[in-house]
Amino acid sequence: MEELIEAFSIDRIGKSGARFDWDKAQWFNQQYIKESSGTDLAKAVMKFAPDNYKDVDTDFLAAACDLMKERMTFLTDIWGKGYFFFESPKEYDRKVVRTKWKPERVPLFHQLKDQLAALDEFSTSNIEATVKAFMAEHGLGFGDVFQVFRVMLAGTKSGPPIFERQHCWAKLK
């Protein structure tokens, strides 16, 4: 409020009629969310938590908010766009499954899952090194693994960076 008062000037008031710009309002809201800490966002989003998410651990929620804040426009987006942090995906992106999923690679993905589950330290750098080494060993490219990996974890090909999800996805272990 103090910043607004300080920045206000009667000389800067436009003479034409004011018009509310919904897109600009959303952009401002998104900027505010991006600049907020995961902890602050976790406190704020809990006010809008659906009943089945009322008992989410606050540290876990703060980590999820940190990862999702680049993709959030409203505080409630964590529960909709980021629901996969709190429960298994409800559905899977059929287009990615149709174009990227190869049945003959099922044993490879089970092997990768086992390697990730066996990590002593489930950290960003360990996850990344394990996945990249696995890809090199089996002659797989990023497109062969990353989109399938995203869909397995989140049901969609979009979302936060894969390797930075360790705090929220340690439940895979």
On the 0-100 scale, what is the average pLDDT? 86
Which regions have little confidence, pLDDT < 50, spanning 5+ residues?
A: none
Quickly give the CATH architecture of the largest domain: Orthogonal Bundle
Q: How many beta-strand elements?
A: 0
Which structural class do you get from the secondary structure elements? mainly alpha
Keywords: Aminoacyl-tRNA synthetase, ATP-binding, Ligase, Nucleotide-binding, Protein biosynthesis
Family: Belongs to the class-I aminoacyl-tRNA synthetase family. Glutamate--tRNA ligase type 1 subfamily.
GO cellular component, one term: cytosol
Domain Aminoacyl-tRNA synthetase class I anticodon-binding: 41-164
Tell me what the structure shows.
- Pfam families: Anticodon_2.
- Belongs to the class-I aminoacyl-tRNA synthetase family. Glutamate--tRNA ligase type 1 subfamily.
- This is Aminoacyl-tRNA synthetase class I anticodon-binding domain-containing protein.
- The protein has 173 residues and is mostly helical.
- It folds into 2 domains: 64 residues, no CATH class; 79 residues, Arc Repressor Mutant, subunit A, CATH 1.10.10.350.
- Helices cover 54% and strands 0% of the residues.
- It is built from 10 helices and no strands.
- α3 crosses α4 and α7 packs antiparallel against α8.
- The model has no long low-confidence stretch (mean pLDDT 86).
